[in-house]
Amino acid sequence: MTTQPFTPITAPAPTPAGAPSAPTLEDLLGAARPPVRVSLLPREVVQARALRRTRRWLAAGLGGVAAALGAVTWLSATSVHAAEDELAAAQQRTGVLTAEQAQFAEVPAVLAQLEAARTARAGAMGADVLWYEYLDGLTRSLPADVWLTDVTVTVDAAAGAAAAASAAASAAAAAPAAAGTAPSGAAAAQVASATFSGVAFEHPRVADWLDSLDATPGFTGATYSTSSRTEKEEEVVVEFESSVAVTTDALSHRFDGATDGEVG
Q1: Which one has a higher pLDDT value, 18 or 107?
Q2: Going by C-beta distance under 8 Å and a sequence separation of 6 or more, which residues neighbour residue 229?
């Protein structure tokens, strides 16, 4: 029997600084390659599986497209129905308005007749004079010791027709003149004459009366035809007859373009 000499186990000598250390187990496992997977299925089976996956993706995509098309179709149909409802409501409203318009079909004709009547009235009353105002004013302005016994007004037909035509033209132009004044730019032509008969105590009072007539707006050319002394009821007085021309300045113009309720 052979004996081996005893060799004590000593710790490994330290590795010198800078020298490479021995690889550990972890280093050896980490450096190993990953496992390689090898399919043992036939190629036809693998291709069939890939085709099925592709078909599933295509089916999903086509389903999404179909859903989108369905949503678009639904929205379009909803919009069409809404537009049709609005069109039907508008047509119904148009029919109602047309029916209501028929109720007022005669209004333009009536307005035209009313305007024609106003124009005719303005023409007929173109030579209108507010005689009651003139007579009241003349009575108040009579000189002392003068009394009127008779008043006669004679309208000049031709001049009155001209004044009426001018008034009608003013009414048609909707430009009424102020009451008691002649239209702007119109000449103060004679439209009538007034004759006054009266009694005075003296001839100078008759002259005062003529001055009073000439001072009245719308009157011009006052003159007397007779002025003579006579005895009335045992008293000597002067009987006179005077006349004056009435011009367009005396026209009232209250019907020139006036509407109903505006006649003064």
Answers
A1: 107
A2: 236, 237, 238, 239
| Residue 27 placed within a domain | no
User: At a CB cut-off of 8 Å and minimum separation 6, what does 245 contact?
Assistant: 190, 192, 193, 219, 220, 221
Range name among 28-37, 75-84, 105-114 with the lowest pLDDT average: 28-37
Which CATH number covers residue 229?
3.30.70
Q: How many domains does the chain have?
A: 1
pLDDT in tens, 121-148: 666 666 778 888 888 888 888 898 999 9
| Residue 162 structural domain | 115-250
Round to whole Å and give the CA distance between 114 and 98. 25
Give me 232's structure tokens: 């009335």
Whether 188 is in a domain gets the answer yes
Amino acid found at 60: A
Q: What pLDDT was estimated at residue 249?
A: 86
